[in-house]
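Cross-posted from the bioinformatics board.
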Amino acid sequence: MRRLSMRSASMLAYNLTLAMQSFKRAPSLYFLVVLTLSIGVGLLCANLALVNSMASDPIPEKSEQLFHVSMNTWPNDDPQAEPFHILRYREAMKIVSSDIPKNSAVFYASGVYARDSASPSLKRFDSSVRATTPGFFSLTNAPFAYGSGFIKSSVMEVVIGHELNQKIFTGENSVGKVLELDGELLTIVGVLKPWRLRPLFYHATEGRAFNLTDDIYAPLETSIDLGWSIHARSSSTVSYKGVKFTRDRDVFYLQAWVELENSAKKQAFQYYLDNYSQSLKDVGEHPLAIRNELRDVNAWLLEQNIVDQKVLAFTLASVLFLCVCVFNASSLLLSRFHSAKFEVGLRRAIGASNKNILMQGITESALLGVIAGLLSLLLSWLFLKLSIKFLPDLENLAVLEPKLLLLGVLLALVTAIFSALYPLYRGTRYTISAELK
Amino acid sequence: MLKMNNISRIYQSDTIQTHALRDFSLNVEAGEFVAVTGPSGSGKSTFLNVAGLLDHFDRGQYELDGVSVQGLKDNELSRLRNEKIGFIFQNYNLIPDYSIFDNVDMPLRYRGFNANERKRRVEEALEKVGLASRLKYLPSQLSGGQQQRVAIARALAGEPKILLADEPTGNLDSLMARQVMEILHDLNKDGATIIMVTHDTDQAREVNRNVQVIDGQLADFRVYAPLDRQAEQTGKNISAVASKNVNEEVVDA
């Protein structure tokens, strides 16, 4: 067995040497093959990177246990006949008060100007705010670098993200420091590690699915009391002067997520919501059918159609383009193998079997594939940079993850071998005497 | 060593059937040096291709060193070519950008020998043809005669049972042709079985037996010299018994 593997290793080394000699004999042709394949693979990988970012599961460890809550409690039958993805304060509180979910979070998006209250500089940073209940951090598995989340919804405390901590405190542990947020002083109790959710599942509506995570996480009640305005979709049947006055009005602006560990709990929570809706209907607060919906992360993202159809179409086009590249490479290799017909004949005459010739060709094309794979990664990166240049919205999406890098190399390897299969098949079909003529 | 019985090889184009070999029978004993002559297009090369397993045949039986080749798979035929046959081509068929060493080493690669064994065999084979000092040369740096000697070394390196030579001196001037023929005769004296296709009637007269092929059939044969079996070397590997070295040529091509 050991002798056999040594022999295989020796043949592999020999075939690699032959491949290098073959490249030296026709460098222009092999350069064209590599370039053709790497452009095709690079373009496809760049598109797959976008699709991957759009279609990936942002929280795979528990995406099946996290549910977005939509309710059908609009006070009249116009305009909402369908369950609504934003809720009133009182529905939100009904959800938070339930002990069925392991975790729950209700929140709205806001924004403030932030500065270190102890800093002599008056420079303020425009910061996005997630005004949320404390369950948000456990529910989303937010990664803490320092400290922890706030425990109550009505304290003057905040958690800040990695980027804001870098900007204001140069990345140091800022727990205990005080931020001035729109003139109010709030103490930092936690700092997050770099945190990317792709897509941003907890706020996938209003075209925000590919936004970065927030700069500041503030307690919900505090944010409402401070009058931090709503920076996302809201709907109401009444007029109101600001978020401070939303608690007892028909203002819909809070999104809600719950963590339900199993189907029994999901069913129980569904009953809980339906009973609540029914109780509202019974006292005439809404005329609608009882329709409350719980959608897990992936179902919710699917519902939001966050995968851009144009990107999908372009990906399909790039698959077809890759096929054209493979045909081109195959045609180039066919001419190369045809010119090497004499050598193939000679090798077969002196004892190489068709299998030996096939392995020699596959080794050569595999080496081509690896080279094309590496070049295709560079081209993918360039294509993505170009995409961002023309479409800045893609910035948070255009990321080449390690699995895509690996896929790129594998794809190039497979396409290179595939390109060589027909030329190799043709090369071993002739009789040896014909090859030697 | 080689037994062909009623071998037929038919080439078929869209409209024409050409019988390159028809009911061709030949028996070559171990240690024989057989010259195959005949006019152009008579089937000499087809015979050599079939004998060397470079081409298939349509009918008949062929046995090489006791192995019936009918129905053998590609890898079995390859192994037979590699282990039992040494080819010497008219055009030498050396790979121009490989060194002399690499050209001679080529058949040994498919035999699975380790590097030391290959090196030993290549050096020994080149020694036998007087080119041991030209290991690193490229074929283009050698004369035609030297290139053919490299081709002979390549054929010998695998220690085959039979040498098949297709007009080995066809591209050489008379002096170089003489040197190549001397090497072949020396190898034969030491027990090598050789079948040589040639147009040269003088060369054909120098060997043990001359067979003539006309219209794909064995037309005639003449025995010019008694078969030398004194050393009981039949069946031995060629290079194991061929020991006479050719003096190194010192003149570059």
